[in-house]
Design the sequence.
């Protein structure tokens, strides 16, 4: 009968369970914990994006810029990305290893040249007078590339309209 006196019309207890209010968390405590977990997730996401972007944020320098600053740019075997043009008639291919050796020149200053060795299979667009961007290291007067992008200017240039 005692239990019946504690129940109201909707069947719930009219009195609080003894000690329950003391253990219940306040709304501000729950909000603080929610914001702290959210902040940790946001900081972790920003850190992941930052670390992922470090490798892809390498810009390239022209061949003239590289030759002027080569001591600073290539110190300690640090990789650098250099843009230039393939000098016509300098491409030499090693049939056994598929390595390619060529001379690159600066687009604006043809007197600035650099010997490049690329040990992988070159792209299909790699030809004489092609624009190239090579990524690698520079030592003893030779740029050893481990990545090469080539663009044949005649293939991508627009033709004038005759309208």
Sequence:
């Amino acid at each position: 009968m005692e239990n019946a006196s504690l129940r109201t019309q909707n069947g719930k207890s009219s009195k609080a369970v003894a000690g329950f209010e003391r253990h219940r968390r306040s709304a501000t405590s729950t909000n603080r914990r929610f914001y702290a977990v959210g902040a940790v997730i946001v900081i972790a996401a920003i850190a992941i994006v930052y670390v992922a972007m470090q490798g892809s944020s390498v810009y390239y320098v022209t061949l003239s810029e590289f030759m002027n600053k080569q001591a600073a740019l290539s110190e300690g075997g640090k990789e650098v990305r250099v843009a230039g043009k393939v000098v016509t008639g300098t491409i030499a291919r090693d049939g056994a290893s598929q390595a390619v050796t060529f001379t690159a020149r600066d687009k604006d200053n043809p007197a600035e040249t650099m010997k490049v060795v690329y040990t992988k299979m070159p792209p299909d667009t790699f030809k004489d007078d092609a624009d190239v961007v090579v990524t690698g290291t520079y030592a003893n007067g030779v740029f050893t590339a481990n990545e090469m992008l080539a663009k044949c200017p005649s293939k991508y240039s627009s033709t004038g309209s005759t309208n």
